[in-house]
């Protein structure tokens, strides 16, 4: 059997979560699917988190990815937004950990640099480059979908020994790498 690897990439969000799935055969990358989960219709943050968990688990159960790559929250000035985004990322990660799927986290700058060569590239520039790399027909309505795809493609470029991302294969490894997130 060949060494196909399926990677799920996630761009977490509390209004729109983007995701992309790719299949890798050596250096060949092919698109499986990409899309978004729209959450703006829900006013309750806890319900948004449940919906993210359920959607990521559903994608995992349908496509059986070997690895999950996720965008790390960027540091902004709005602490409440950062907290909500961190929670969204956490429940997406929890879905993967629930199914024993290893996780690697990448900074937004690292993802953009990997795809376009520029860490400050726009969403549109990332989408245009992905159109050529992965050869999809139509840019989706929401660029959050191509952002999720970019995370997966970035991870595929790093290979299985990605040194530029934080890897988590279990709750134990996550907690060992994040002692500041443990409260008593």
What does this structure look like?
This protein has 184 residues and is α/β, with parallel strands linked by helices. It has one domain (4-181): Ribonuclease H-like superfamily/Ribonuclease H (Nucleotidyltransferase, domain 5). It is 45% helix and 22% strand. The protein contains six helices and six strands. Strands 3-2-1-4-5-6 form a six-stranded mixed β-sheet. A hairpin with a 2-residue loop joins β2 (16-25) and β3 (28-38). α1 (45-63) runs parallel beside α2 and α3 packs across α5.
Shape: globular
Query: Hey, roughly how much beta strand do the residues contain?
Result: 15-25%
Largest sheet: 6 strands, mixed
Percent helix among the residues?
40-55%
Unreliable stretches covering 5 or more consecutive residues: 160-164
CATH top level? Alpha Beta
| Overall number of strands | 6
Total domains: 1
Features:
6-stranded mixed beta sheet; 184 residues; alpha/beta; 6 strands; 45% helix; Nucleotidyltransferase, domain 5
Brief rundown of the structure:
The protein is of the alpha/beta class. The protein is built from 6 helices and 6 strands, in the order E-E-E-H-E-H-E-H-H-H-E-H. The protein has helices at residues 45-63, 79-98, 108-116, 123-134, 143-158, 171-177; strands at residues 4-11, 16-25, 28-38, 67-71, 103-106, 166-168.
